[in-house]
Design brief:
Blueprint (H helix, E strand, L loop, with lengths): L16 E3 L3 E4 L5 E4 L5 E4 L1 H8 L8 H8 L3 E3 L4 H13 L9 E5 L20 H4 L3 H11 L6 E7 L7 H17 L3 E7 L7 H9 L2 E6 L4 H7 L7 H16 L4 E6 L8 H10 L4 E2 L1 E2 L6 H4 L8 H20 L5 E2 H11 L19 E4 L4 E3 L2 H7 L7 E4 L5 H5 L2 H9 L21 H8 L10 H19 L1 H12 L1
Parallel strand pairs: 6-7, 6-14, 7-8, 8-9, 9-10, 10-12, 11-13
Antiparallel strand pairs: 1-5, 2-3, 3-4, 14-15, 15-16
Helix pairs in contact: 5-6, 7-9, 12-18, 13-19, 18-19
Bound molecules: iron/sulfur cluster (2 copies).
Length: about 475
Amino acid sequence: MARFSPAQEFQSALSPIQLLPFRFERTAVGRYLVSNIVGEFVSLSGEEFGRLVQLQLAPGDELYDKAYASHLITRAGQTAQLQLLAMRLRSRMAFLREPSALHLFVVTLRCEHSCPYCQVSRQSSDRSRFDMSEEIAQRALALVLQSPAPLIKIEFQGGEPLLNFPLIAKIVEAANIEGPRAGKELQFVIASNLALLNDDILAFCKANSILLSTSLDGPADLHNKNRPRPGGNSYELAVKGIKRAQDVLGKDRVGALMTTTERSLGRAEEIIDEYLTLGLGGIFLRPLSPYGFAVKSKQLQKYDANEWLDFYRRGLRYILDLNRSGTPFVEFYTALVLARMLTDRPTGYVDLRSPAGIGLGALVYNYDGRVFASDEGRMLAEMGDDTFVLGNVADATYRSLVTSDKLIELVGASLSQCAPECHGCVYESCCGADPVYHHATQHDAVGIKPLSGFCARQKGVMETVIDLLHSSPEDAVILRRWGVA
Ligand code: SF4
Ligand code: SF4
């Protein structure tokens, strides 16, 4: 007589398998890319995908383990899996708990450059009309300190903000007194072409831990054609400024951004080399945006999303090869996308957020006192479109700005989680909503995604990144390092 009951009598009855929410897309090579709601991607063969959707899987087989680990399936009545997903989603969207951490002061719209792609529609004269006054700055600072975020970044923009440096100094000094009283930790950034940088400004930046962010489009001939100024020496001044800032403030206290023009397209490697030579740790291969003179001068029409993607892929390939040969260097946008894919950290980058980052991610205080939901929103206003004006420093409170009907409607209408096309897109969990771009290009904050340059670029970048992660182990090691850094 057996002393023990059969093994199956000790097994708990398994409840039926159920699918969890996921999105999928058939790839060019006949496989299926499947993503869960927290940004994990798995590649399945057609046969595996068929078995997954028909629930023809069982514990012990490879597909079951893969689907379970990727939160694509659960067991009826099992709550742990759902709780885990909910916790991860909450963490990914934690940016909503600390809204409006970024505040941009447009201290002047004047600029001594005349870049044909200038997206802010700079002005060349009339200090009284295009410079922010001290009174407007004070009122704007009071609004900044009402926002709930404990860590606040104040960025000075233009035009060329150094043309109104005395006002920057006053704002920083006032913020350093009033910020701690309001329980805020403050960071400061000046976004400048650096042509007007001098020792006094650098000393002030050092004393107040101010970061500098500048523009560098590539080698001298390319940069100077893109960024004309009297004397034709924008490149020389930018490079000199970067070096001086690195010496005085530290290598990591100055960053540069490039803008892709038609002239840049065949020169990805040279542009990247320029950044390497200057000891910059990475580059953001940034496309033109549809605002200001970039539209008026038809710069925007000179290349399309596919041509930019070719440029991006060529640049990324070059950067990955540099890393393989021992030179660490990062493509920053790729790193941001990877962080969405490989971690549950809330993103600070407003273009990769849904709900959109307008207002909730950043507020912009214009030189004339108007408050905008985003930097691009104020660029549109210079083109005569006031859609993204939320109020005026004269009478606004932080609460009146972020709870305005206008902002709520724009943010609510553009959620990628439920927007047409996006809600079923395999990349949704790592993408974002950009209502300003879509309003500017399609006169509709939601946008018709199959016709959207934003969507084409987002898809192209994410497809490229996932392809490299899945097909190239050496590149995957480098990319994973960028994503979790
Ligand atoms: S892009 Fe910048 S540097 Fe060039 S004109 Fe516009 S504000 Fe000035
Ligand atoms: S914008 Fe395009 S890539 Fe992004 S979620 Fe929507 S459809 Fe997908």
